[in-house]
Every structure is written in structure tokens, then in C-alpha cells.
User: What shape does this take?
Amino acid sequence: QVQLVESGGGLVQPGGSLRLSCAASGSILSFKAMAWYRQAPGKERELVANFNRGGTTFKADFAKGRFSISTDNGENTMSLQMNSLKPEDTAVYYCNGVGWTGWSSWGQGTQVTVSS
Assistant: This one.
């Protein structure tokens, strides 16, 4: 079970940018899939973007053209670059990984607040 820890959240003005990072305690190659989720107050957790090794990838409509997901196998990190942020992007953002045998790991979440 590889542990995941998010960082990089904070307060940003509308139109601004923020880069979130998810650090793994071991090799991210331990995951067959990784993803970023977010959850706003009073709403269900929703998928932002993911990738599946050798398979399909997904990006939510609200993220297209604004958010980008990336991984660094050497540093064992996954990042979410967020540009043109809107107030409705305010949420707790979580990283997730699913292992090759079906186990799952979640980070503790990092708060993103978009406000002027």
C-alpha cells in the first residue's frame, strides 16, 4: 500500500493558476491508474482527471482546456496544473491511486479556494 500526500493548495484569485502535487511513499508504478478528484461543500466527490497505464484516460468537461494531469516516475509524484481558475473550482482536491491487484490509496486532500 503506497501512501499518497497532496500539497499545493491555497487561496487564489479568479483567473489565476495553481499547481497541486501528490507525493507517493513508493513507486507510482505500483498504481495501474491514478487520478485527481475534488469535493466541494455539499456536493459529491467528482473525478477531475485520470490516467490508466496502457488504457483510456479521462478529463472532466470543466477541466478541459484548463487543467492538466502529469506524472513523474523519477520523483514518484503526480501533479495537477490548474489554470484560469473559477470560484466554482473551490473544493478539496484529492489524489487517488489504484494498484494492480485492485487496492486503492487516497491522500488526505488539499484545499483550493478561488475567491477575489
Q: What stands out?
A: The radius of gyration is 14 Å.
